[in-house]
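Hey, I'm writing a tutorial for new members on how sequence and structure tokens pair up, and I'd like a real worked example in the thread rather than a made-up one. If someone can provide the structure for the chain below, I'll link this post from the tutorial.
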Amino acid sequence: MLRFLLAHTRGILRLIVGLGVLAVLVLGLFLPPLVRIVSSSTADKLLLAMLGVWSRCTLLVMGVKVVSSGPKPAAPYLLACNHLSYLDVMILWSQVDGFFLGKSELAKWPVMGPLIRAAGTVFINRTQRRGVVEAIKGITDKVNAGSGVIFFPEGTSSSGGEVRQFKSNMFQVAAQSELPVHIAVLRYTTSSKHNHAETDMAWWGEMTFPPHFYKLLTFDNKVAELKFSEETVAHADRKEMAQQAEGLAVAAFEPMHQFDEIERGNDVSFLA
């Protein structure tokens, strides 16, 4: 009973403080558009700096410790990472400055949609060829402006049992521009006796966001391990590049659990 009360007290307090931190970010998001009138590059740098600070503060409030290793990419860059949870975005923002590639449905989400757009996300409509072309242009514009772009080439989130196949269309810009792609792998761990990283930190399958997020706030000893590869991938053929990138990710990734086939085919990903 005592453990139950402590867990929910912890969760409620973290939720309240986290909402306060989010409110500060929302107010701050009005500043970059004003700066953009004078300098677009300065506005992007300011926006990314704000998102980095917000992510580090939010992860601190949530009780998530980030352990990072390997050389971080310097802008402009393209970074491919495996995808496990909605936490991934904050984990990466806490370590590197970069805009995300996200599926177009996110822009229409109530409440969060405007925030995701304000964060400079490049959207991709995966059901239309034109959508891919527009996304390529958006990524190219970000890179040419000196910014980094981060994407999840698996196209969906998983429970961390394996690195899924990388989709080659995500590498089209890199193949055209001859810009090397940096690789990162992410995994979650917890030493909590009553919780499991693959279900209580990773977010996949038919999981719904509110109960998963609240449960995440109720327990401690949460760690995100982010490893940047020392090798990059560069190739004129996007399919070859995707295969090489996937190989580097698989070699560096340590599974969070024994992979279960039943999780295949589910798509609850925040980002593409």
